[in-house]
Amino acid sequence: MKILVPVKRVVDYNVKVRVKSDGSGVDIANVKMSMNPFDEIAVEEAVRLKEAGVATEVIAVSCGATQCQETLRTALAIGADRAILVESGEELQPLAVAKLLKALVDKEQPQLVILGKQAIDDDSNQTGQMLAALAGLPQATFASKVVVADGQAQVTREVDGGLETLALNLPAVITTDLRLNEPRYVTLPNIMKAKKKPLETVTPEALGVDVAPRLKTLKVSEPAKRSAGVKVPDVATLVDKLKNEAKVL
Ligand code: AMP
């Protein structure tokens, strides 16, 4: 059983992003980039399924600039077997990525596609859902537990007020939530091994996909600054201010 894992190269979650002065987007020049954290969880889950003897091959895919090769090498170091870069210099919006992934699903015929639930740069939370729709596959989003057996995936999802468990016939699309697993640390020997694993490059044109953007960003702005707090000398003053100034008591 093959598992396809799409991994996105995003601004590292530790970086405080700055909005460009013209409000056209955020500045990503000279900023540390990493694999989207939910995608690390997706790779880890796929590799665990392989280690458990459920999967036979894990294929990592990234769509974007040449530098996405670094992200793919990280996926290979976690334990993916091979990687595909869909190289494009254009901005790739979620619909375009979903179409590219659909083309790869047709080509590779994986039994499972495990994506992150959202990319921390655009927070779209769209790609997995759109891929499932385009490919006509069942989907379970926000997975906190995945069990694969007898041609089915049982997926537990954290929903308001409890847990929901779904059974999906394979092939299927799953997106990962934070508590699905804790990704392993990538070791140096595995980084070295990853350099020798196959990494194929294809283009959107070769996959027959039009990746032209469908959405236009009108404006990006900084969140409002928090106003400074005040120190009060004692509890009585605090209660007085809450009653008479903030009027919350
Ligand atoms: P989004 O819909 O943009 O929030 O992204 C959801 C998930 O889709 C991510 O966690 C990735 O698994 C996948 N994805 C989105 N963009 C890309 C990309 N450019 N390359 C590979 N995978 C992607």
Give descriptors for this structure.
single chain, nine-stranded mixed β-sheet, electron transfer activity, 11 strands, 249 residues, binds adenosine monophosphate
Précis, in short:
Keywords: Electron transport, Transport. The protein is of the alpha/beta class.
Structural description of this entry:
- The protein is of the alpha/beta class.
- It has six helices and eleven strands.
- The protein has a single domain, classed as Rossmann fold, CATH 3.40.50.
- The strands form two sheets. It has a nine-stranded mixed β-sheet with strand order 9-8-7-10-6-1-4-5-11, sandwiched between helices. A two-stranded antiparallel ribbon has the order 2-3.
- Strand 4 (57-64), helix 2 and strand 5 form a beta-alpha-beta unit.
- Helix 2 (68-78) packs across helix 5 and helix 3 (94-108) crosses helix 4.
- The chain is globular.
- The protein starts with a strand and ends in a 5-residue tail after the last helix.
- The model has no long low-confidence stretch (mean pLDDT 96).
- The structure holds adenosine monophosphate.
- Residues 6-8, 36, 38-39, 61-64, 92, 94, 97, 115-116, 118-119, 122, 124-128 line the site of adenosine monophosphate (AMP).
